DNA sequence: GCCGTTTTCGGCCCGACTGTTTTCAGTCG
C-alpha cells in the first residue's frame, strides 16, 4: 500500500461527499487530511499512527487504517452506493458545482453526461428553480465541449501565450503596471488558465483594449474588476483572466491571485490571529484602517516572514521551513550546457559567449552533441578538437568570462560512451545523456546510466529522465536508484531548465536532498539562456539550497573544480 | 471531520461574478 493510494482514496471520498451534499467543512477535512499525508516527507511504512499528523483525527484515521489493513474502504463503498459515478465528470463543467449537480440528480434523475445533455435539449433543466434558459444553454454548450477542451496546458505552451499577452499589454498606455499571477507565476508544470493583474486608474479604457485583443475566441465574463476571455494559441483555446485594480492595491492583488489557495489560507490565518483581515485590497486592521504596501516583500514582512518566491507558494509548508539559503536566480554564475552551430545550435560560439557575458555570467561551458547523434549533427573527434582550439582562442579574447570546452556526449544503446577516455581527457567538462533507445527495459537503461556515472570524466547527467512535459514520459529510469548511483560516484544531476523538460523535476530533488545538482538551459539559441528562471524555480519547488548547485560557484572556485576536482569521482 | 494557553463547542478564508433573485445562492479562484 502506497501513500499515493491513500491520498487518492481520501480525495475520492471528498468528491463523493461533496456530490452527496455533505457539510463542506467535513469534505475539506478529507482534503486536508490527504494533503497532510502528501506534505509529510516520510514514506507510509515509517508512519505508524496517522492521527499524529495535523488534520487527521479519529474519523479519517479509521478510514485510513481500514484501507491499509484490508485494502478496502466501507466509507467509500457506502458513498458509491448512494452517489452515481457518472456525476463526477459533471464537476468539470464550468458553472456546475456539487449543489447544482445534486439538484439535477434528485429532481431529474440525471446521472451522466449524456442524460444531462438530453435533459437540456428537452428543456427540462430550465424548469427547475434556480436554473433558467440561460443556465440551460450554458450547460448544454459546456457538456458538448466536455472532453474536447483540455483541462490543463503544459508550462511551455502557457509561457508562449503569456509572451504574446505581455507584448499586447505593454502597448496599452492606460496600464500602470501588470504581471502574470496564478499557477504560471508559481511555475507549475501545467496550468488551467493564465491570470494577469493589471493596475490602472482608467479601467474602462483598459477593459475596451482587452476586448480588442486579436486572438480572442470568446468572452466568458466581463466585470468591473475581472475580465475572462478565451484566447487561441498554438491550435488551442486557453482561458485568460485579467484583474483590474487601482495602483494602490496592486501588490496585494498580485499576492492574492498568485496563490496558491493553500498558501493564502495560511496567510489569512496569520491575519486572523492578529485580528486583521487580508484580501486582494490590502490588510484591514481591527480599527478598520486599511494598510496597502507597495511591494510583496512588505506584505510578507508584515506577517514576520521573508518574501517567499512564487515557486514555493504551494501547500503552506513553506511557512514552516527555513528558506534563507534557498537558491535564487542571481546565485547562478554560469551556464554549463549549451549548443552552437557546430551541432544543432543556431548561433556561433562567439555569439553564445557574448550572450553569456550579457547575462553577467562568470563562466560557461560549450557542450555540443557527440558523433553518434547524427540527427543533431554530432561532432566527430576531429571537429570536437577543432572546436576545442576555437574555444581556447575565444577564451584569450574575452577576459570577462571563462569559456570551457565540453561535450554533451551520448550514452549509446549498448551502454558504451560515444568517445574514448583519451578524447574525453582533452575536454574541460563532460556531460553524458541519453538521446536514443528510450524503449529499452529499465534494467538496460540503468546499466547505461551506471556506466556513465562510473566514468571518471563524466561530470554530470543531462535531463536525467528524458521526459517532455505533456508529450512523452521519457525513458523512465529507476530514479531513486539513479540518485543513489549519482551520490556514490560524485556525479552531478541536471535540472534542465528548458520549460519543455524541467528534468529532474521538483519532486525528485526534494526527495533526494543529498544529490548535487546543476541547473542549465541547454540553449540552442541565445534567447534560450533566459530559461534559467524555470530551472531555478524548479529547484525552489524542491527547496534546494544553493550549496547543492554547482553553477553557483564563484569564478575561482569553478576553475578549481574544473582543474582539480575531477579526482573527486570514485 | 478537525481543532483548541481565551475555547471540548463553534468555528473553519474572502470577495467577485453570474444568473437568478427581489436580497441571494452557487460557483470560482
From TrEMBL:
| Any one Pfam family match given in the protein's UniProt record, by short name | HHH_8
Q: Can the keyword Disulfide bond be found in this entry's annotation?
A: no
* Stated role: Repair polymerase that plays a key role in base-excision repair. During this process, the damaged base is excised by specific DNA glycosylases, the DNA backbone is nicked at the abasic site by an apurinic/apyrimidic (AP) endonuclease, and POLB removes 5'-deoxyribose-phosphate from the preincised AP site acting as a 5'-deoxyribose-phosphate lyase (5'-dRP lyase); through its DNA polymerase activity, it adds one nucleotide to the 3' end of the arising single-nucleotide gap.
For this chain, one GO molecular function annotation is: exonuclease activity
Query: Which cofactors does this gene product need?
Result: Mg(2+)
Localization of this protein: Cytoplasm
Q: Which residues form the Polymerase/histidinol phosphatase N-terminal domain?
A: 334-413
**Signal peptide: which range, if any?**
none
Cross-referenced CDD domains, in alphabetical order? NT_POLXc, PHP_PolX
Catalyzed reactions per annotation = 2'-deoxyribonucleotide-(2'-deoxyribose 5'-phosphate)-2'-deoxyribonucleotide-DNA = a 3'-end 2'-deoxyribonucleotide-(2,3-dehydro-2,3-deoxyribose 5'-phosphate)-DNA + a 5'-end 5'-phospho-2'-deoxyribonucleoside-DNA + H(+); DNA(n) + a 2'-deoxyribonucleoside 5'-triphosphate = DNA(n+1) + diphosphate; a 5'-end 2'-deoxyribose-2'-deoxyribonucleotide-DNA = (2E,4S)-4-hydroxypenten-2-al-5-phosphate + a 5'-end 5'-phospho-2'-deoxyribonucleoside-DNA + H(+)
Q: Which residues form the DNA-directed DNA polymerase X domain?
A: 1-314
Q: What is the protein name for this chain?
A: DNA polymerase beta
Domain Helix-hairpin-helix DNA-binding motif class span(s) in chain numbering: 48-67, 88-107, 123-142
SUPFAM superfamilies found in the cross-reference section: DNA polymerase beta, N-terminal domain-like, Nucleotidyltransferase, PHP domain-like
* Chief subcellular location: cytoplasm
Q: What is its EC number?
A: 2.7.7.7, 4.2.99.18
Q: Which UniProt keywords apply?
A: DNA damage, DNA repair, DNA replication, DNA synthesis, DNA-directed DNA polymerase, Exonuclease, Hydrolase, Methylation, Nuclease, Nucleotidyltransferase, Sodium, Transferase, Ubl conjugation
Mind telling me which NCBIfam families this protein's record contains? Answer: PRK08609.1
Amino acid at each position: 500500500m502506497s501513500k499515493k493510494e491513500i491520498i487518492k482514496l481520501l480525495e475520492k471520498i471528498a468528491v463523493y461527499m461533496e456530490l452527496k451534499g455533505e457539510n463542506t467543512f467535513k469534505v475539506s477535512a478529507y482534503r486536508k487530511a490527504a494533503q497532510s499525508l502528501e506534505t509529510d516527507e516520510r514514506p507510509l511504512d515509517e508512519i505508524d499512527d496517522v492521527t499524529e499528523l495535523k488534520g487527521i483525527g479519529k474519523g479519517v484515521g479509521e478510514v485510513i487504517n481500514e484501507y491499509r489493513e484490508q485494502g478496502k474502504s466501507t466509507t467509500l463503498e457506502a458513498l458509491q452506493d448512494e452517489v452515481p459515478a457518472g456525476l463526477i465528470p459533471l464537476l468539470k463543467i464550468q458553472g456546475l458545482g456539487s449543489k447544482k449537480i445534486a439538484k439535477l440528480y434528485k429532481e431529474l434523475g440525471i446521472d451522466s453526461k449524456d442524460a444531462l445533455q438530453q435533459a437540456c435539449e428537452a428543456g427540462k433543466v430550465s424548469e427547475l428553480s434556480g436554473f433558467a434558459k440561460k443556465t440551460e444553454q450554458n450547460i448544454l454548450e459546456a457538456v458538448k465541449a466536455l472532453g474536447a477542451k483540455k483541462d490543463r496546458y503544459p508550462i511551455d505552451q502557457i509561457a508562449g501565450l503569456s509572451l504574446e499577452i505581455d507584448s499586447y499589454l505593454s502597448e496599452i498606455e492606460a496600464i500602470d503596471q501588470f504581471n502574470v499571477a496564478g499557477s504560471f507565476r508559481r511555475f507549475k508544470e501545467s496550468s488551467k488558465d493564465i491570470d494577469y493583474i493589471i493596475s490602472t486608474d482608467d479601467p474602462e479604457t483598459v477593459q475596451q483594449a482587452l476586448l480588442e485583443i486579436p486572438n480572442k475566441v470568446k468572452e466568458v465574463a466581463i466585470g468591473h474588476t475581472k475580465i475572462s476571455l478565451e484566447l487561441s494559441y498554438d491550435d488551442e483555446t486557453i482561458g485568460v483572466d485579467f484583474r483590474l485594480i487601482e495602483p494602490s492595491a496592486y501588490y496585494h492583488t498580485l499576492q492574492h491571485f498568485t496563490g496558491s489557495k493553500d498558501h493564502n489560507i495560511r496567510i489569512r490565518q496569520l491575519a486572523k490571529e492578529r485580528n486583521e483581515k487580508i484580501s486582494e485590497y490590502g490588510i484591514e486592521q481591527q480599527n478598520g484602517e486599511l494598510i496597502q504596501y507597495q511591494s510583496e516583500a512588505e506584505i510578507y514582512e508584515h506577517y514576520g516572514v521573508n518574501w517567499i518566491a512564487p515557486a514555493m507558494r504551494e501547500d503552506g509548508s513553506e511557512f514552516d521551513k527555513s528558506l534563507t539559503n534557498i537558491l535564487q536566480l542571481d546565485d547562478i554564475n554560469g551556464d554549463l550546457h549549451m549548443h552552437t552551430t557546430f551541432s544543432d545550435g543556431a548561433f556561433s560560439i562567439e555569439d553564445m559567449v557574448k550572450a553569456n557575458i550579457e547575462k553577467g555570467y562568470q563562466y560557461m561551458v560549450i557542450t555540443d552533441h557527440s558523433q553518434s547523434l547524427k540527427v543533431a549533427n554530432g561532432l566527430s573527434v576531429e571537429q570536437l578538437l577543432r572546436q576545442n582550439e576555437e574555444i581556447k582562442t575565444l577564451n584569450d579574447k574575452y577576459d570577462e568570462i571563462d569559456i570551457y570546452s565540453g561535450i554533451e556526449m551520448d550514452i549509446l544503446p549498448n551502454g558504451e560512451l560515444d568517445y574514448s577516455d583519451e578524447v574525453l581527457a582533452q575536454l574541460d567538462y563532460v556531460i553524458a545523456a541519453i538521446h536514443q533507445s528510450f524503449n529499452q527495459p529499465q534494467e538496460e537503461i540503468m546499466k547505461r546510466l551506471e556506466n556513465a556515472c562510473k566514468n571518471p570524466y563524466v561530470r554530470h547527467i543531462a535531463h536525467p529522465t528524458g521526459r517532455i512535459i505533456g508529450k512523452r514520459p521519457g525513458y523512465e529510469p529507476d530514479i531513486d536508484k539513479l540518485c543513489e548511483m549519482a551520490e556514490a560516484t560524485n556525479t552531478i544531476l541536471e535540472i534542465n531548465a528548458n520549460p519543455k523538460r524541467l528534468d529532474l523535476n521538483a519532486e525528485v530533488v526534494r526527495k533526494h536532498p543529498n544529490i548535487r545538482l546543476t541547473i542549465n538551459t541547454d540553449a540552442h539559441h541565445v534567447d534560450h539562456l533566459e530559461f534559467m528562471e524555470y530551472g531555478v524555480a524548479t529547484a525552489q519547488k524542491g527547496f534546494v539550497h544553493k550549496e547543492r548547485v554547482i553553477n553557483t560557484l564563484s569564478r575561482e572556485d569553478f576553475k578549481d573544480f574544473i582543474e582539480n576536482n575531477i579526482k573527486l569521482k570514485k
